[in-house]
Design goal:
CATH architecture of the largest domain: Up-down Bundle
Number of helices: 19
Strand content: under 5%
Distance between the termini: 82 Å
Shape: elongated
Helix content: over 70%
Radius of gyration: 33 Å
Order of helices and strands: HHHHHHHHHHHHHHHHHHH
Structural class: mainly alpha
Number of strands: 0
Number of domains: 2
Amino acid sequence: MNGLALDPSGVLSEFYISFWIPTAVLTAALVIKLPTIVRLWRDPLLRAVGGLLLLACAVFVFVTPSTIAWTNQVTGVPNISAPWCYSLLTAFCGSCLLLIIAWRHGLSERSAATRRAMRWVVSVYSGVIVALWVLFALADAPVERLRDLDTYYANTPFMREEILLYLGAHAVACLITSWLIWNWVRTEGLDAWLRWGLKLLGAGYVLNLIFDGSKLTAVFARWLGRDLDWLSTDLAPPVAALSAILIAVGFILPHAGQYAHDRWRLRLAHRELRPLYQLMKTVSGTGVPRVRATPELRLTRRETFIRDVLLPLARYIDTDLGRRAYDAALELGHPPRRAGALAAAVSILDAVDARRRTPEPPSDAAVGPDTTNLLQEIGAVSRALRHPDDIAAVRARAAVPAESVAVHE
């Protein structure tokens, strides 16, 4: 127990997160968004999101120790993975800044200041990538290091500057991106899914700052002759992995969450119409054909079927009964909107019974009553049909002689 307390790296090793986990999450995020990106390829924001997720996947694929060793072996250059991984990470940081700036201000309404900011980001981070390769070419780093290169070469000329450059560029990008995101979160009128997505993105970039702080502290400690390498080798990697997971979820949540919400709303609306749909099936003798269709199309077909059956059934509706049923529902304590739905349900049930008794309506009912409101409120009427006891109470109270109702009026 005391040994663990004195050895932070031993404790952190228990919480190791494999880099393949964030890679899988980022890949899943890319796959989820890929159909939308392909369908709306001309949308530059969607292309940017796709490119960003692809870069993030590449970062975590190439920073795994096994891939680092493979890259070094294939090229024959020890530690060539260092500038390559640093370049990918720098490109990812610049892409994050560009995406947030464009997403925040909208591509169609970009001001001159926004365009200048985007050009500045491209120029600076492209320059950083070039500088990383130049510094590596000037450095002498013959010993391959798979996990502790940052601290091992912390005092090596040119490698020292390269390490500081990539960490500094990463920290600045994360700081600015985090600031932009949290300012955006405080904006009024944001969609709930977008707000939660931004919060996760903000948390992910804050964790990235912890990653940078851990790496820089370990490097500074090497300069002072101390050994805090565990901050770089044991703390920073799981922090980076958790950050990537939060960022991936943050990007997909606004779209996936809204998609799931819309699907749930459509299924709920389809289910709510079931009682009225079943009643209309008894009137028409048929129903909507069972074929594979999208939730939107299934809901539209059910709504259309109900309205198509209600239109001829309207000739049997007793408007006086409807008025008495509405008053009766109010007397029973129902609020006006629910009273209207219950009254409509009573009128429709009475019309169904009347149609069964007299299949052909009387000649003076050729043009039925106005059913505009009824056709618009089929959802509320269908929900009312789920409460037969309430309908029975309203129907019984509305069946009293018209004179007694007139006293109430």
